[in-house]
């Protein structure tokens, strides 16, 4: 099973949330996958982008009225971030048909047939398991977020002595009042707004899952070349020049595939790293500054932090693994006896030693194991900055209790006494 057939079920899940709108994904022939502006998938994706723009404007307009603090800044930033992610996913989907032939060419190489059945089955299970795990956890996190918001609305009604007979209607009017003030409340509109919010939230997980699947596949190609090299470093090769020339050529083709894919996906990687860094800091800030006593708020905070750290670690791990396996031949070449050394092997060795083969983020940085440690240091630094920002804006962005204002993200409430 090739890469595209492996990820096809995952891409179908993406389409359910309006992400990565490739036309023809349901077919088993990747060469038939293409991008259509007039397809249902693209229309849905563009519709969600416009909904996100509208909600971003709504949150920005409210913050202008009450002020900004470290807590409520997440409102407009969330929608701005997911809009950028969806636009980048749209760009990747638009250019993806140029990648498919190169991927098919790599998978048809003779070196990729080395122990192919066992390797393909293992890779297929691993990619699908990780992708499904992250998608399920991402959806579960959003459901906990909705549960937390519902709990806050119910507690607000109890505190303010507001009576309601229909919980979904009350929740909709308090959360999406900006919409239902102009349109009479109806359940289908409420469901669509909830779906749009869910789909926009899932964009965070979709971008990381896509990067993980791409990185794992390319790292797998390098591993197959390494397995071939490892076998022939301990045996006598009759046609040494020809063998190492072919291996070198195959290695260069995988490098070219990596370069071509990252020319399309590297902006997505930059946004992913920035988003995950901010979200980790934001959830850590909530642990430090947490004042809620509700169990569901505590569960959501810890679960969300765990999920973001897990998603970030897996993304960084699989992206940095490409660099590790691409450099491994340098260690394997040390086992080659002097009698088996030749000019083509020398050229191959020099190419790897002088090349910087890694997942590249628009030339800003390369993802290696050291990058993970750098990001850990950045989390500590920006967490201190966020705590300082929270202290300087402690008296801003506070909404009085029982306020008629509706917010998608629960702001800080202050009880006022007359």
From TrEMBL:
GO molecular function: sweet taste receptor activity
CC annotations in GO: plasma membrane
Function of the molecule: Plays a role in the sugar gustatory response.
Family of the protein in this entry: Belongs to the insect chemoreceptor superfamily. Gustatory receptor (GR) family. Gr5a subfamily.
Protein's name according to its UniProt entry: Gustatory receptor
GO biological process, one term: signal transduction
Membrane topology: Multi-pass membrane protein
Annotated Pfam families: Trehalose_recp
Keywords attached to this entry: Cell membrane, Membrane, Receptor, Transducer, Transmembrane, Transmembrane helix
InterPro entries tied to this protein: Gustatory_rcpt
Main location: membrane
Location(s) in or outside the cell: Cell membrane
Superkingdom of source: Eukaryota
């Amino acid at each position: 099973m090739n890469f595209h057939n492996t990820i096809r079920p995952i891409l179908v899940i993406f389409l359910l949330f309006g992400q990565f709108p490739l036309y023809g994904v349901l077919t088993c022939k990747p060469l038939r996958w293409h991008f259509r502006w007039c397809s249902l998938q693209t229309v849905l994706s563009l519709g969600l982008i416009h909904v996100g723009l509208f909600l971003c404007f709504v949150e920005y307009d409210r913050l202008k009225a009450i002020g900004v603090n470290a807590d409520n800044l997440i409102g407009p930033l969330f929608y701005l971030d997911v809009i950028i992610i969806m636009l980048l996913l749209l760009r990747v989907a638009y250019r993806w048909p140029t990648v498919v032939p190169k991927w098919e060419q790599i998978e048809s190489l003779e070196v990729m047939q080395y122990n192919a059945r066992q390797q393909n089955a293992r890779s297929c299970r691993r990619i699908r398991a990780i992708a499904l795990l992250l998608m399920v956890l991402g959806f579960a996190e959003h459901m906990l977020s909705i549960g937390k918001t519902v709990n806050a609305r119910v507690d607000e009604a109890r505190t303010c002595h507001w009576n309601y007979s229909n919980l979904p209607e009350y929740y909709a009017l308090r959360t999406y009042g900006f919409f239902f003030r102009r349109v009479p409340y109806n359940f289908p509109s409420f469901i669509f707004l909830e779906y749009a919010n869910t789909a926009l939230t899932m964009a965070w997980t979709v971008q990381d899952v896509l990067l993980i699947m791409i990185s794992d596949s390319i790292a797998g190609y390098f591993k197959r070349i390494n397995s071939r090299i490892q076998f022939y470093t301990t045996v006598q090769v009759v046609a040494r020049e020809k063998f190492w020339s072919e291996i070198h050529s195959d290695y260069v083709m995988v490098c070219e595939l990596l370069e071509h894919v990252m020319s399309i996906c590297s902006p997505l990687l930059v946004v992913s790293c920035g988003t995950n860094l901010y979200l980790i800091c934001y959830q850590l800030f909530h642990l430090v500054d947490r004042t809620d006593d509700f169990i569901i708020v505590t569960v959501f905070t810890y679960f969300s932090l765990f999920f973001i750290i897990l998603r970030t670690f897996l993304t960084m791990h699989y992206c940095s693994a490409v660099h590790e396996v691409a450099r491994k031949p340098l260690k394997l070449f040390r086992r080659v006896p002097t009698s088996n050394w030749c000019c083509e092997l020398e050229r191959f060795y020099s190419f790897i030693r002088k090349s910087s083969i890694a997942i590249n983020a628009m030339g800003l940085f390369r993802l290696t194991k050291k990058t993970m440690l750098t990001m850990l240091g950045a989390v500590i630094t920006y967490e201190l900055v966020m705590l300082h920002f929270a202290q300087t804006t402690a008296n801003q962005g506070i909404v009085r209790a029982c306020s008629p204002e509706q917010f998608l993200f629960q702001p800080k409430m202050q009880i006022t006494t007359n």
